[in-house]
DNA sequence: AAAAAAC
């Protein structure tokens, strides 16, 4: 559906068109008209579904509608605080949403958007909170800090948006969110986004929302239709490294996001890859915020080809040129796998999500397959086949939608064109391991001409790699 | 046993 039928101000429709979007996504089509009525909303939408615009556009609509009030508000010399407050779990997400607000709000005269997140100096934030403000995007901790010191005023908030509510609860923000919500007028509109509304999130919704409308666009069992998933079994860390290097030097590799399980592994792996000549940096919560910002900027500007990150990057990061997501270390929760792979295949592009697993990871692989009710097809790369037999995997329990969607059995493998699925062998048994070089996939082309180990030719490296320490667990001395 | 987030 087109944006101009959603009831949005032409200034917003124009900004959306300027940004290159023609059609609204499902979550936008369904939630924007509801949001414009002022109703409370519970929205479950998968990552990359255009979620941010679905709450930023109605927020901007409200800002536009209130333009007349602003002169009055500014005159009085009183701190009014924002009209719209958005809470997000991570700092990067907050800044990304702020950027989107700037883009969609470019034709909104005098729009003021501010972010309040941890890890950055206070004075600029305090100044921003004091000035006239339309939209405030914040992580809970720092905002609560400002509330306690009286620097943040939320008594004129009209719209409260909770993005990634399930994640914020996972991170222990329940009390912070409740306290912040207590500072916001009860007459507000509240919009809550979450992958699920079961358990704690549902209870929080009950406490914060009034007669909410529900918009269910996607569940975790839905396929990312434009993301091809693959599994490579590796004998050991050495083998995993060789597979990784192969993937990173594929011709189709535009930019890769490589996930590790720990901060230490992220630094370590980025350091090794830099030594190999990759334009790489790491990203994790243990890094100073300034450097986190620079790294993300390096990824966006495409100075970086490879980003090695912890799950801080699992949600929200929206960089359309990420062609590969590689799970070098598995996530701790199956749910996080779904968020990780959603970092590729964005803005209508195709993406490849490759999981490198050792035998000890078989349990997690099984849980992921169970969670998504899909199996991840196991593949091999010529010259890099695992020497030990693959773990025996059992098919995930097929639930309703799984069968409903593909009556013939099997899942689409890449894109939507017929005949691309692996219809006859939907499960990753040893027999089901398909040849790696499958010419039907855009990611499968002729071998790069190298069968093992890392590339030796030095290429351009990115950023510093200070503070690197080899992890004790890695005594196998791969590579060199 | 991880990561994230306030100082």
From TrEMBL:
Helicase ATP-binding domain boundaries: 32-215
Key words of the record: ATP-binding, Helicase, Hydrolase, Nucleotide-binding
Organism encoding this protein: Piscinibacter koreensis
Pfam families associated with the record: DEAD, Helicase_C
Protein family (similarity comment): Belongs to the DEAD box helicase family.
Domain Helicase C-terminal: 243-388
One GO cellular component term noted in the UniProt record for this chain: cytosol
Sequence segments annotated as region (Disordered): 383-480
Extent of Basic and acidic residues compositional bias: 398-407, 461-480
Segments carrying motif Q motif: 1-29
Keyword Hydrolase in record: yes
CDD domains given in the database record: DEADc (cd00268), SF2_C_DEAD (cd18787)
Highest taxon listed in the record's lineage: Bacteria
Domain called DEAD-box RNA helicase Q: residue spans: 1-29
PROSITE patterns assigned: DEAD_ATP_HELICASE, HELICASE_ATP_BIND_1, HELICASE_CTER, Q_MOTIF
GO terms, molecular function: ATP binding; hydrolase activity; nucleic acid binding; RNA helicase activity
Gene3D superfamilies noted in UniProt: P-loop containing nucleotide triphosphate hydrolases
Listed name of the protein: DEAD/DEAH box helicase
């Amino acid at each position: 559906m087109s944006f101009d039928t959603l009831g949005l101000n032409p200034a917003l429709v124009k900004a959306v068109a300027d940004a290159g979007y023609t059609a609204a996504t499902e979550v936008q089509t369904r939630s924007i008209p509801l949001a414009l009525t002022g109703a409370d909303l519970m929205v479950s939408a998968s990552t990359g579904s255009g979620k941010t615009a679905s709450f930023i556009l109605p927020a901007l609509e409200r800002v536009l509608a209130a333009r007349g009030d602003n002169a009055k508000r500014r005159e009085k010399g009183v701190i009014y605080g924002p009209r719209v407050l958005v809470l997000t779990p991570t700092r990067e997400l907050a800044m990304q949403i702020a950027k989107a607000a700037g883009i969609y709000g470019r034709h909104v005269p005098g729009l003021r958007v501010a972010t309040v997140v941890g890890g950055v100096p206070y004075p600029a934030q305090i100044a921003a909170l004091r000035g006239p403000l339309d939209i405030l995007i914040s992580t809970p901790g720092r905002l609560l800090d400002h509330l306690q010191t009286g620097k943040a005023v939320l008594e004129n908030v009209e719209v409260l948006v909770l993005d990634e509510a399930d994640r914020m609860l996972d991170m222990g923000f329940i009390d912070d969110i409740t306290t912040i919500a207590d500072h916001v007028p009860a007459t507000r509109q509240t919009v809550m986004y979450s992958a699920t509304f079961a358990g704690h999130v549902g209870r929080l919704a009950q406490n914060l929302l009034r007669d909410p409308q529900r918009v269910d666009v996607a569940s975790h069992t839905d396929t990312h239709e434009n993301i091809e998933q693959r599994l490579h079994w590796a004998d050991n860390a050495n083998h995993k490294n060789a597979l990784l290097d192969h993937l990173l030097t594929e011709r189709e590799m535009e930019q890769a996001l490589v996930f590790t399980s720990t901060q230490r592994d992220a630094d370590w792996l980025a350091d090794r890859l830099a030594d190999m000549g990759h334009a790489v940096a790491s990203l994790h919560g243990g890094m100073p915020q300034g450097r986190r910002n620079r790294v993300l900027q390096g990824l966006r500007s495409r100075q970086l080809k490879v980003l090695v990150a912890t799950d801080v990057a699992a949600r929200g990061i929206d960089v359309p040129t990420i062609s590969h997501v590689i799970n070098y270390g598995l996530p701790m929760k199956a749910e996080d796998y779904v968020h990780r792979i959603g970092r590729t295949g964005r803005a209508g592009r195709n993406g490849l999500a490759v999981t490198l697993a050792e035998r000890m990871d078989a349990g997690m692989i099984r849980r992921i397959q169970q969670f998504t009710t899909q199996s991840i097809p196991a593949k091999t790369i010529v010259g890099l086949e695992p020497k030990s037999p693959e773990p025996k995997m059992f098919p995930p329990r097929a639930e309703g939608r799984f069968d409903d969607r593909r009556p013939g059995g099997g899942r689409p493998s890449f894109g939507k064109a017929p005949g691309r699925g692996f219809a006859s062998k939907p499960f990753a048994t040893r027999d089901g391991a398909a040849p790696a070089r499958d010419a039907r996939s855009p990611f499968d082309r002729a071998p790069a001409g190298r069968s093992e180990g890392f590339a030796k030719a030095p290429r351009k490296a990115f950023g510093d790699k200070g503070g690197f320490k080899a992890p004790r667990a890695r005594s196998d001395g791969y590579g060199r």
